[in-house]
Design a protein that fits this description.
This protein has two domains: 3-47; 78-255, no CATH class. The chain is 40% helix and 20% strand. It has helices at residues 3-9, 16-21, 23-47, 52-61, 95-104, 111-118, 150-159, 169-176, 237-255, and strands at residues 85-89, 108-109, 129-137, 147-149, 162-163, 183-187, 192-193, 199-206, 211-217, 223-225, 229-234. Strand 7 and strand 8 form a beta hairpin.
Length: 256
């Protein structure tokens, strides 16, 4: 082994003479080094949770969280939609630490999603907080004709008392949702522009080859399939009460 290879592999050259005179000590050292390597390898495999093999193992050994694939029912207010999942945010010092955690977990990150995480507009919370997420499809919000514009979906969701999620929700959910079934969730968030000025929203997905975090077209006129599921946050109670009142008033006016 030449000196360059020795430096790259983490080993240092040991003179033959030292091996001969201290055979026992060298053997112990070599065993210790091998054990250390095994520990590091095992630790890396333990941290990797997003690969296809890990996803399959999770689905075989852990009861998966329902993907909320029940038949579409028209949502009249956010208050009536049960919490789909609770996650924790504000657990990383900065976006670079969050990105490092995604890489350590073996989560694939799409090119546009990677740009978003590196943009100044993408920020992480400074206080550890739990967030309740609700899952709802565009069809459940009342859109039935194949596709709907993203801006219309957002407007309808906010009218019913849903609130757009912070951008941090997407990567945090990716790290806290390793047993995701096949499918994907659009994150109901304010779009963040790439370096080229293209608005992007983030999507947490299991495409069959592992768990990924990808970007989607976040333009106001982007056409979204009505079957697509969004993750929103419920607004505060006063907003929910107003949404329920407006919905009731709409029903009353419709019967006149």
């Amino acid at each position: 082994m030449d000196r360059t290879a020795s430096k790259e592999s983490g080993y240092r050259d040991i003179p033959y003479r030292s091996i001969r005179r201290r055979r026992g000590g060298t053997l112990v050292a070599m065993i210790a080094m091998l054990c250390t390597g095994c520990i590091v390898l095992c630790a890396s495999e333990a941290n990797a949770q997003c690969t296809a093999r890990d996803v399959l193992q999770n689905q075989l050994t852990v009861k998966t969280t329902p993907a909320a694939n029940s038949p579409p029912m028209l949502v009249k207010s956010a208050f009536a939609v049960p919490v789909w999942r609770t996650i924790t945010v504000g657990t990383f010092a900065n976006s670079y630490a969050l990105l490092s955690a995604l890489n350590a977990a073996g989560c694939s990150i799409g090119s546009s999603a990677g740009e978003i995480l590196a943009r100044p507009a993408f920020t992480v919370g400074t206080t550890k907080t739990t967030v309740e997420l609700v899952a709802v499809s565009a069809a459940e919000l009342g859109f039935q004709n194949g596709t709907a514009a993203l801006a219309d979906i957002y407007a309808r969701a906010q009218q019913l008392g849903f609130r757009l999620a912070a951008a941090e929700i997407a990567p945090q959910l990716r790290l806290q949702y390793f047993n995701q079934p096949l499918g994907e969730f659009f994150i109901g968030m304010e779009p963040i522009k790439t370096w080229n000025g293209e608005p992007v929203i983030l999507t947490v997905a299991n495409g069959g080859a592992g768990l990924v975090l990808i970007g989607r077209d976040g333009s106001a006129d982007a056409e979204i399939p009505v079957a697509a599921r969004f993750l929103f946050v419920r607004s505060n109670e006063p907003a929910l009460a107003n949404a329920v009142r407006r919905a009731d008033e709409t029903v009353v006016l419709g019967h006149r």
